[in-house]
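Protocol step 4 of 5: obtain the predicted structure for the target chain.
Materials: sequence only (see below). No template structures provided, no constraints applied. The aim of this step is simply to have a reference model before the mutagenesis design in step 5. Sequence pasted as it appears in the construct record:
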Amino acid sequence: MHQDKMTRADFRKQIRTKRKQLSDAFQQSASQQLIHQLSRLPELDASQHIAVYLSADGELSTSAMIEWLWQQGKSIYLPVIHPFSAGHLLFLHYTPDTEMAPNRYGIAEPRLNKQLIIPTRQLDLIFTPLVGFDASGHRLGMGGGYYDRTLVPWFHNRSGAKPIGLAHSCQFVEQLPVESWDVPLPKIVTPDKIWSWEQSDA
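Step 4 output (structure tokens):
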């Protein structure tokens, strides 16, 4: 199917298939290359409270990245599906001892504990999962809208945590179909480069 005719669902299916075909050795190498790129990311030095996610479905592995961030003395938080507010996320402090439980998608998340929750506005960075991205920085998610809702304050007035996408290079496409609510990410990090669409970096 020609890219001009492809829907968001078509792109989602195509890219997820491509991503799942990556070998374990490739994934391991990519996760180490990701750390090298992150070490060049200026935002990290000034950030203490950082949201990450546990990778699934062939996503770029974040386990080595999380270990590395702990070594840098950073506080790490993981997303938890909000139990009462449909379609929203909470972020809970994550350490090597955090008690985990599978969510409705079968992805491990911290067991809900109110004492571990950080208000999203107090996060410095939110490393954001994505299925695909394009040359304008538009992000194609899984379709649940969780991160779209989480990042509204940033997209509207640049307040709160700064979102930075993480992806394999093979998740790039020239142009995604865009909806009215889509706002490009300021940066996306792949194992081979840091993509930036910020005016100050132009």
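Step 4 remarks: The longest strand covers residues 75-81. DSSP finds six helices and twelve strands in the chain.
Proceed to step 5.
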